[in-house]
Amino acid sequence: MDSPPRDLERTSYAPSERDRSRTLTVLRNVGIPVLSIVLLLLLWQAIVIIFHVAPYIAPRPMAAIQSVTDNWGLLWPLVLGTIRETIYGFVCGALLGLGLGVIMAKTPFLHRMVYPVLVLSQGVPIIALGAPLVLILGFGVTPKVVIVAWIVFFPVTVNVLAGLSHVDQDLLNLARVYGASRWRTFWQIEIPASTTSLFAGMKIGATYAVTGAIIGELVSPSGAAGSLALYQETANTNFNVAAVYGTTMVMTAIGISWFLLIVGSEVLATPWQRRTVARRSMFRRDPDVAPSPRVH
């Protein structure tokens, strides 16, 4: 019996060295962060046990987690409310930052006039904005969304402005020589070149978006209808320390999840940062191997 053609041998389902390397990279990128969180919880547990920390000061990690699971039916609607405020505010702030960054990059006069105002806006304590926003916008989710957008738009604006200001001038000159329009140059050269800076600003905003939502829940009287921040405040008043720590863990989980979502979006939107050539299919023939003759 004739031996199978060489090209069929090369397209076997056995994982190649490149596949193993990719798998190890994924495991390293996922496993190390998970391991760090586990070590942090173990350190928390060790400190409570070794130093005999009283339960009314700091509970053990499992006690805090159990306080969340036991009251999940009550917490779930509050968590959804915080997530909704975070998403609405983040999207509004990111879109505002992107648009403002592009306009400022294309209009130097507007850049010089608006940039100091942007810096000044970030000098205002966020907690001090709550009462005026409630008076102006009323009671509801709107003041919370505005606070989140206020936090997010500045890093996005600054990073978009920096990205558009550092586009390779040789590429722009080459596009101009070939007669590319300003819109095509902007869409095909400047936008891809500034994508990394855009996501850098979005990741910074993502880490603070949940903080803005919680601040909005604290300063808005609408929290009396139910909010995650009010739940934690009530637990603190009642000396339910496990619930206080457990709620903090839930807030942290929301923030980490939102940050990871932005990171995942960056991975999908910027494939050129991880590879310079197209992915090779496992069924693609090697160009150095001659095709096998057809059997009729």
Q: What would your notes on this structure say?
A:
This protein has helices at residues 6-10, 17-50, 61-70, 72-106, 108-123, 126-137, 142-165, 169-177, 182-219, 228-237, 241-269. By secondary structure, the chain is an all-alpha fold. It is flat and about 70 Å long. α4 (72-106) packs antiparallel against α5, α4 (72-106) runs antiparallel to α9 and α8 (169-177) packs across α9 (182-219). The chain starts with 5 loop residues before the first helix and ends in a 27-residue tail after the last helix. The chain has two domains: 15-53; 63-272, MetI-like fold (Orthogonal Bundle), CATH 1.10.3720.10. The relative contact order is 0.13. 75% of the residues lie in helices and 0% in strands.
What's the helix-strand series?
Answer: HHHHHHHHHHH
Looking at the overall shape, the CATH architecture of the largest domain is: Orthogonal Bundle
The CATH first-level class of the largest domain comes to Mainly Alpha
- Cα radius of gyration in angstroms: 26 Å
Helix content: over 70%
The coarse overall form would be: flat
Q: Low-confidence parts lasting 5 or more residues at pLDDT below 50?
A: 7-14, 281-290, 292-296
In the CATH hierarchy, the third-tier topology of the largest domain is known as MetI-like fold
CATH homologous superfamily assignment of the largest domain: MetI-like
> Based on DSSP secondary structure assignment, what is the total number of beta strands?
0
- Share of residues in strands: under 5%
Overall residue-averaged pLDDT value: 83
Q: What is the count of DSSP helices, taking H or I runs of 4+ residues? A: 11
Q: Distance between the terminal alpha carbons, to the nearest Å? A: 16 Å
The domain count comes to: 2
Q: Please summarize the sheet with the most strands.
A: none
Structural class: mainly alpha
